[in-house]
(S)-3-amino-2-methylpropionate transaminase (Paenibacillus lignilyticus), 453 residues
Amino acid sequence: MKKHRAYVSVTAPFPGPKARALLEKRKQYVPLGIGNTTPIFVQQAGGAQVTDVDGNVFLDFAGAIGTLNVGHCPPEVVDAVQKQASQYIHTSFHVAMYEPYVRLAEKLAEITPGDYPKKTILLNSGAEAVENAVKIARKFTGKPGIVSFTRGFHGRTLLGMSLTSKVRPYKYRMGPFAPATYKAMYPYPLHRPEGMTEDQYAAFCVAQFEDFLLTEAAPEELAAVIMEPVQGEGGFIVPPVSFVKGIYEVCRRNQILFICDEIQTGFGRTGTMFASSYFGIEPDLITMSKSLAAGIPLSAVTGRSAIMDAPAPGEIGGTYGGSPIGCAAALAVIEKIEREQLCDRALAIGSRIIDCFTALQERVPVIAEVRGLGAMCGVEFIDPSSKKPMKEFTAKVIQASYEAGVILLSAGIYGNVVRFLAPLVITDEQLQEGLDILSEIVLQLYSKEHLSK
């Protein structure tokens, strides 16, 4: 673990003295409920690297929970933000309009799936995008019901929690939740019944959904279905293409709007600008945020013009929604993704991650599955004898990784999935160094776990 590294440098002890002092202040002034994956405080960041206040240098494989597809502080985005800030910072689009909002709405209409007229509302966060997509769907259809899926995550607001499927830490003792929200079953290919092909499993799951419309929620009362095309917090679960298409077609037949939550999957992460394209669907509404503006708070709902026009003036929006600085950043982000072909880069990154851990799987049988779409990859750890999720082992991997200089996150309702959200601008050399470190850690921890039994 003490090998010379070109891109990682972590000095002992860890965390360092400056971080420890700040941790004491954090404990005094910041609520316990705001969780932290690592005990570091950032001093500077660029590309796929983060330097903390004690001079430790890390490779960032978490990307601020998927908000940094174009990396930390990309110069083009920094320049766009500085230029915009020197002109005007905020006027509120509701009071005095500005061109960046309209230009971004035009660009999102161009790059989102579907060759038909579209309009966009800009907001501040992913949860706000979800809330407003639901409001718009209800207004357009005149129906109240919203269906989400098991293991789905859609935010921490009241409605976001209501649509989210993980109780702890997001919903525990925070109810009652919003009415007229329902949860249908989402496939988990790792748990596919023995003897079923992927297509048979997908057909089975679609049939379950059709039964759900008979037993739980009538189509005549449903405004929309909201789905993550690849589940994020739920465990980086990639469903069969025919499942997503099947649900989409059921919605079409029953006059139910289809909302695609692309907050984590959007902007090149899965190898296409939006994962919807991979699954061959054209959602009625798409929610976006995270990597839209390289870390500046900004979100969007883009959808068919007739649907988006359902609310009357003043019924949707917000004081800070679509800030000029956020819009300027987003336009620079999209230009960078297109110019540097970062969708293709996502495919290359994902392939190397999958290859690395698939090879490691032969030596580490607690790796139950290595999966992903593009550079949205997950590694699930399960005890092969008891078949129980290995949450504690996964936590040890996360801790040992940041102590060795690689920042990672976990996922899954059992917390037993390591997820990869490295910036798409990471170099091959940086990626390989990070994967080498992680491989060593997993091997060492497995050896200890194996010997202790």
Q: What stands out?
A: The two ends are 24 Å apart (CA to CA). The chain is about 40% helix and 15% strand.
